[in-house]
Amino acid sequence: MSMHQSYTAIVRQSDHGWIGEVPGVNCQEPTREELLETLRITLAEALDFNRADARSAAGTGHEELRIGV
């Protein structure tokens, strides 16, 4: 089963381009399209990093379960 998660980004145009935030991820790009792509990439990297950190902290004997939100 494939799960697709969606997140709500808060974006706004500034004097120097576009600024966006998803909790824990902040990005700035010259165009809205570039901002959305950068937010997607940066959020995926942050989730991967956090997952690896959680695995490390759990040590041995842990279980990984997919949950829907």
Whole-Å distance between the termini? 14 Å
Number of helices: 1
Order of helices and strands: EEEH
Class of secondary structure makeup: alpha+beta
- Fraction of residues in helix: 25-40%
Shape: elongated
Spatial strand arrangement across the major sheet: 1-2-3
Total number of β-strand segments?
A: 3
The largest β sheet comes out as:
3 strands, antiparallel
Low-confidence stretches: none
Mean pLDDT: 92
Estimate what percentage of residues fall within beta strands: 15-25%
Radius of gyration: 15 Å
Structure report:
This protein is α+β, with helices and mostly antiparallel strands and 69 residues long. It has a domain at 10-54. 39% of the residues lie in helices and 23% in strands. It contains 1 helix and 3 strands. It has one helix at 32-58, and strands at 10-14, 17-22, 25-29. A 3-stranded antiparallel β-sheet has the order 1-2-3, with helices on one face. The longest helix is centred in the middle third of the chain and has 27 residues, at 32-58.
